[in-house]
Design brief:
alpha+beta; 7 helices; globular; binds 2-acetamido-2-deoxy-beta-D-glucopyranose; binds fe (ii) ion; zinc; iron; PAPs_C; metal ion binding; glycoprotein
Amino acid sequence: MGVLGLSSSSSSSSAGMVLVVVLGLLLNAAVLCNGGITSAFVRVLEKSVDMPLNSDVFSIPPGYNAPQQVHITQGDHVGKGVIVSWVTMDEPGSNAVLYWSENSKQKKSAEGIVVTYKYYNYTSGYIHHCTIKNLKFNTKYYYEVGMGHTTRQFWFITPPEVGPDVPYTFGLIGDLGQTYDSNKTLTHYELNPTKGKTVLFVGDLSYADNYSFHDNVRWDTWGRFIERSAAYQPWIWTAGNHELDFEPSIGETKPFKPYTHRYHVPFRASNSTAPFWYSIKRASAYIIVLSSYSAYGKYTPQYRWLEAEFPKVNRNETPWLIVLMHSPWYNSNNYHYKEGESMRVMYEQWFVQYKVDVVFAGHVHAYERSERVSNIAYNIVNGVCTPVNDLSAPVYITIGDGGNIEGLANNMTLPQPKYSAYREASFGHAVFDIKNRTHAYYSWHRNQDGYAVEADSLWFSNRYWDPVDDSKSA
Ligand SMILES: *[C@@H]1O[C@H](CO)[C@@H](O)[C@H](O)[C@H]1NC(C)=O
Ligand SMILES: *[C@@H]1O[C@H](CO)[C@@H](O)[C@H](O)[C@H]1NC(C)=O
Ligand SMILES: *[C@@H]1O[C@H](CO)[C@@H](O)[C@H](O)[C@H]1NC(C)=O
Ligand SMILES: *[C@@H]1O[C@H](CO)[C@@H](O)[C@H](O)[C@H]1NC(C)=O
Ligand SMILES: *[C@@H]1O[C@H](CO)[C@@H](O)[C@H](O)[C@H]1NC(C)=O
Ligand SMILES: *[C@@H]1O[C@H](CO)[C@@H](O)[C@H](O)[C@H]1NC(C)=O
Ligand SMILES: [Fe+2]
């Protein structure tokens, strides 16, 4: 780090320049100390402990070769497709998904594929992925996986047809892991009276890499843990650092191996060439998923894809432009401080130009919401490198507080920078509730509170249709 943004000034050859910048920083610190709210809520800082292998949430469904770890995600660009994934342990079994709509009862069948992988001395079960296409919008479907005497049935509801005033409710979860706290976060999401219909997951899934040799059994337990939600509503996946599973010391040199075998995403539908960056439309939202851990410099595949992607977003069709990534750009926690900086320098200009409404990230195990700010004036020599209020800029939300084994990130930078509107080291989840093309209601819920309690909230005004200053509406 330290190559870009603020720090590039200090690597310039002029010592005078360094002095000016340092002075500037000190002055800024003085001016900026009237930042937002650092929550006074004090959480008991007990350690997050992984749930043991024999926990109820990890139980294996009964029956020979029973499908387990069932999860769904969007399977096309507009929401008429669903990817169904599941694992069978004893034999490959069937790749087919049987499905029927609540009304028609006429059963149809879609054929999928099966993959396996080895990781050090672990051999995966049979991982099935089946894309169901051309579903009707806004319809409840039942589906069945497995064969013979051991089949299992689930259901999902397809989103309404893409359109500018379609209400839709997204849940936000990040850095979940599989501790008792993770289970609380998921339970709170499930019981939140504002029912989320789709989870936007901002990366760091199982934390299997916390075990010796990245014991991939913990990828299996995680799949069983989230099934109770992810089999019934799509989880939109973002890759985090804990998906890398890059471990040359045991011969594992292909990054993202377990993740890419287990979690398929519809990246080809948005003309992406890799599953780490892609986009979907869902109801009135256009969602762009980026990868903090894939190359993003100029001329890289991700850069070229994103450059071509932004102009495709039609705010008359999808007013809400949402970006997901793992490593946050505006984080005022000492944990992972500035890790998102080089990507911010590459892409922030576009986010402002194309008026992204909100950016959700994870990685930092705490909660933070920013003001609408940008920091794009800097050009190596002008020294203009302070975040400024910018009504074309997104709100940045860090929601890496799912509750994994690494515990809370409770060491914040002081003073709280001006761009930071609210920050708190507690586990929780959030909900982004789109009402129409101009308004969306956002709320963050900490695990210590009752299911309906909002610890932080904001009325969002759409950046294209209603670009008023909404940052003070908290
Ligand atoms: C993998 O190797 C480790 C270390 O030798 C051992 O503890 C573990 O039981 C092995 N797992 C399997 C599935 O063989
Ligand atoms: C996880 O949460 C669910 C729902 O609240 C509960 O039924 C289950 O017992 C919990 N399991 C563990 C291991 O905490
Ligand atoms: C993907 O590329 C094809 C061929 O250029 C084009 O027809 C299609 O509209 C593109 N899809 C998206 C979602 O950009
Ligand atoms: C697992 O996570 C804990 C908490 O962050 C850490 O102390 C420990 O070193 C990690 N273990 C491994 C094998 O990564
Ligand atoms: C908090 O973070 C700062 C900066 O990284 C570090 O110097 C300090 O020791 C940390 N404090 C604690 C209590 O960990
Ligand atoms: C959009 O939703 C907001 C919040 O519910 C409401 O106040 C506003 O009247 C709605 N706009 C239209 C055009 O319905
Ligand atoms: Fe992370």
